Amino acid sequence: MEIMFSGFSGQLREDLLFQHQTTNYSLNGAFHRHEGYELYLFLRGNVNCYVEQLCFHMEPGDLLVIRPGQYHRPVMLDQSNYERITLNFRETLLQKLSTEQTDLSSSFCGSSKDSVCLIRLSGDQLQHYLSLTSKIEPLLESDEFGADLLIQSYLTQLFVFINRVLRTAGKPTSNIMPKLIRDLLRYIDTHLSEPITLNILEREFYLNGTYISRQFKKHTGLTLRNYIPERRISYACTLLTTDLSITEVCHRCGFSDYANFIRTFTKTVGISPGKYAKQQKS
User: Fold this and answer.
1) CB count in 10 Å sphere of residue 195
2) pTM of the model
3) Those residues with Cβ within 8 angstroms of residue 45's Cβ, 6 or more apart along the chain or in another chain
4) CA–CA gap between residue 203 and residue 216 (Å, rounded)
5) pLDDT per residue as tens digits for the range 141-161
């Protein structure tokens, strides 16, 4: 479920994935998450974007700043041309471009790791953003002299611009996520260490389990059976950066079977919990 950053040569480019795409066919992917940040600029189409417990109907010039680990998905509401520019990058890229005076990660989604930033860019702001990305795009596969320095320069300008906009941005547009889905996601997040079954959800929400399952799949693209283990593994990744043992992490994430935890984590993340913990602490 995590995006891999590859396909570019050079130290700086390994931290960056740039895509400018137009789609005219149905594209309704499931909830997914990335190991780094994503800047998602919506240009045209009829699309709803889901991020964690929020859903926004996108308008041209809307910029979403999606934090590492946040679940999100776009849903096309018809087959009109859907155009967007996405920039995926690791936090290490922000660190490389920052200085002692200017920390480029300081304003990304504010102080809460769970917050979601949606910025409705003005006409001038949108043109400035597009001007910078149009300069970055052709350089990413260029071997010309100085291409790496130009990428660094334009990215620095882009991140400075975003930080300045974030510092003055107002509240995001109305959240159109159905209350049931918001409540389900919130319940799962706060009960990850406990058993979560369809029978438990039926009792908690006083609703038929089939209805709950269908509504959850409709809005997240995932079944509850797939989402809950994914969320537990995401939580495990966070806990593995602490001093907790792997056994303690296993139980805090709601896995009663240690072998199942190791197997599920390795399948989802690509490496064992032990190796992941060592990488994060090195």
Assistant:
1) 9
2) 0.86
3) 23, 58, 76, 80, 81, 82, 83, 84
4) 16
5) 899 999 999 999 999 999 999
